[in-house]
Specification:
The protein is 42% helix and 16% strand. The chain has helices spanning 13-16, 19-28, 44-53, 75-82, 104-121, 133-143, 159-167, 184-193, 221-232, 236-251, and strands spanning 3-8, 31-37, 57-61, 89-96, 125-130, 150-152, 171-174, 198-200. Strands 1-2-3-4-5-6-7-8 form an 8-stranded parallel sheet. Helix 4 packs parallel to helix 5, helix 7 packs parallel to helix 8 and helix 9 (221-232) crosses helix 10 (236-251). It starts with a strand and ends with a helix. The relative contact order is 0.16.
Length: 255
């Protein structure tokens, strides 16, 4: 089986200290591509260096809502320069109502600027959203979505929200939460988005499998694959094939 980890954070200090081993273990698990996502502009250079060092790695560049500052209101200009250096997506970007700072209005301003850049350049997006799906949809109504689409990673919304975002051209990824206690909502969403719009992610070093501790590792995607297979009632091979095909389509990967 060939697997794609469509969202991880190899730049994290928890992984960078043993990055060669991390990549070796990922390859042994059948991961042929990992898309590593920066969370601040200061990380973009690290992301790029990882892509240059490892054939399996691609990278996205963006500013995560947890880390936005007023300086990031100029992020579109920085992304314009970075887009010439090999990034394949804009991310991780998004909105988060579950945190008090940064202010939500600042999050929204920076997110809209990054979304507009992605639309203008037709680069897929990697979106983080917690507690702000209504605001996310309103924003996408204003900016549109790139023709290439993108993903809402670690998706936790309802079937109804998924249907709205599907109509806008987005897909969805899930990882560690697939191993958590049974959830009717998650099961219904997964069955709605599979097979055409579901991707696998590790989100390493975050959201480890149930019963384990951080750091989560990319090779744990095998556990997430098994969990998705069980929920859907289809073979792991079928889940692997469809999720890799979806990742190839959304991100333009050559698998």
């Amino acid at each position: 089986m060939q697997l794609v980890d469509c969202h991880c954070h190899l730049e994290s200090p928890e992984l960078m200290g043993s990055i060669d081993r991390v990549i070796e273990q990922a390859a042994a698990a059948g991961i042929v591509k990992l898309i590593t996502s920066s969370v601040t502009a200061d990380q973009w250079n690290v992301s790029r260096l990882l892509r240059e060092k490892f054939d399996q790695v691609e990278y996205s560049a963006g500013v995560h809502p947890w880390y936005v500052t007023a300086n990031d209101l100029e992020v579109a200009q920085l992304l314009q320069a970075e887009s010439k250096r090999g990034m394949i997506a804009v991310g991780e970007i998004g909105l988060d109502r579950k945190i008090e700072t940064p202010r939500f209005d600042l999050q929204m301003s920076v997110f809209e600027k990054q979304m507009q850049f992605a639309v203008d350049c037709d680069l897929p997006v990697i979106i983080h959203c917690r507690g702000a799906f209504n605001e996310l949809i309103q924003c996408l109504n204003r900016t549109g979505v790139p023709r290439s689409g993108g993903i809402v990673h670690a998706f936790s919304g309802s079937v109804e929200i998924a249907e709205t975002l599907l109509r806008k051209g987005l897909s969805f990824s899930m990882g560690g939460t697939l191993t958590y206690r049974n959830s009717r909502k998650r099961s219904d969403v997964l069955k709605k988005i599979f097979p055409e719009h579901f991707l696998l992610e590790s989100d390493s070093p975050d959201i480890p499998p149930a019963g384990t501790e951080k750091p989560n590792m990319p090779h744990n995607i095998l556990l997430f694959l098994a969990a998705a297979s069980e929920i859907l009632g289809v073979s792991e091979e079928k889940v692997a094939a469809s999720t890799s095909e979806n990742a190839s389509r959304v991100f333009g990967l050559d698998l």
